[in-house]
Amino acid sequence: MFDNLSDRLGATFDKLRGRGALKEQDVRDAMREVRIALLEADVALPVVRRFIDAVTEKAIGQDVLRAVSPGQQVIKIVNDELVRTLGGDPDEEEGAPAPEESRLKLEVKPPAVVMMVGLQGSGKTTSTAKIARYIREKHGKKAMMASLDVARPAAQEQLAVLGQQADIATLPIVPGQQPVDIARRALESARLQNFDVLMLDTAGRLHVDDALMAEMKAVAGAADPAEVLLVVDSLTGQDAVNVAKSFTDEVPLTGVVLTRMDGDARGGAALSMRAVTGKPIKFAGTGEKLDALEAFHPKRVAGRILGMGDVVSLVEKAAATVDAEDAERLAKRMSKGEFDLNDLRTQLKQMQNMGGLGMLAGMLPGMKKAKAAMAASNMDDKVLLHMDAIIGSMTAKERAKPGLMNAKRKKRVAAGSGTQVQDVNKLLKMHQEMSKAMKQIRKMGGLGGLGKLFGGGGMPGMGGGGAGAPSLPGLGGSGGGDIPPEIRDMMNKKK
Known about the structure:
Elements: H1 3-17, H2 24-40, H3 45-59, H4 62-65, H5 70-85, E1 112-117, H6 124-139, E2 143-147, H7 155-166, E3 169-170, H8 179-192, E4 197-201, H9 210-223, E5 227-233, H10 238-250, E6 255-259, H11 268-277, E7 281-285, E8 293-295, H12 298-305, H13 311-321, H14 324-335, H15 341-353, H16 356-363, H17 368-376, H18 382-392, H19 396-400, H20 407-417, H21 421-443, H22 446-453, H23 485-492
Parallel strand pairs: 1-4, 1-5, 2-3, 2-4, 5-6, 6-7
Antiparallel strand pairs: 7-8
Helix pairs in contact: 1-2, 1-5, 2-3, 3-5, 5-12, 6-7, 8-9, 10-11, 15-18, 16-17, 18-20, 20-21, 21-22, 21-23
Domain SRP54-type proteins GTP-binding: 280-293
Protein name: Signal recognition particle protein
Membrane topology: Peripheral membrane protein
């Protein structure tokens, strides 16, 4: 997300960093570039004006222009204003939870009703299932879902299927029942079965109309929701903001859910939404899978926009996806300087579970070059699948003792994995280099000793975080944010 905006801002700030001293005109020229970048990202014009005025006023102050690193000071001012625009506090501590107003308010007499509203095609039904799953996983509460969409064909059946996939209870379908009656039945059913949360997936329309708003108000009157979440498709850009404003004027919204944030190269909807509606963005949908949902953290999103990375979210993602037993076993082996192809395969799977190379590169600071190299090579995460296929085509003995791989065995493995012998050689070379690194780490006192060299804390999510943290192959020692040569070579091949 935010790729184009991030690139434009990065180029502008590179110019500022390269200057030892700044004049007022330098700052104003940079702000003109920032203004153009925000407008091209489809940020609402009033929001752009307020943003530029606020940043310029602070950036042309004497404290900034006479600072030791004025360029860095200006970037910090822009970062802080981005955080405020997104609804956050720039002074919050690193790793702090989302702002209070951005969290779901579920501490009411159960069942807490969460009502989902929005236009047809915005992703309401999928988001309903995602949030219900999130509530169970993050809050430990039992949720039930009910579809009130009697207009769209098979809408109720779709929610029932999603409920089965996510292992979330859904209200049985009664043909012919109207939305308000369904809401009342769902509320009674949730009370009788002691559910903590009731998710109501309401009907949408192709545009905002009187019938839609009347239905929303009737359902809200019957269910008395604790949360009314507007679901908008971020790919619609400025139109998403207009839709949000229309709903804000008619329905007592408590927050916004932005869908398809993984495909939004502009990011204008996210930057405009809070300022235009006055409502916090509570969740961002980052993919089609039911676990592809993130709580919206303004400070972390601002960091991604400015290319500063989001290591906190990366570590949280690691904690949620990495198997603790596998991590513990791998940490023990690494502390002894042991690292075979089974260990490499485990790490490749960890990377896939965490979203693949592109996701990791976008969340690690200084990895813009790596992400750009992947995009330039027109490569996706097939490289991880190919590497896994190569290891899977080996025998258990070969995986445990890679030194057994002679020319004949390599030819057999290449044929079995649908790759070429040179691909097998590159994988073995990558393993060999990593194995050497493990032995070097052992000589330096293991992961704990390495952590002391870097200030005592290790490197969370990059091999120095201990048993619970993943050690990402090739994403910590490649220097300057470049992709490791073995992976780059495989990426550059025509698949």
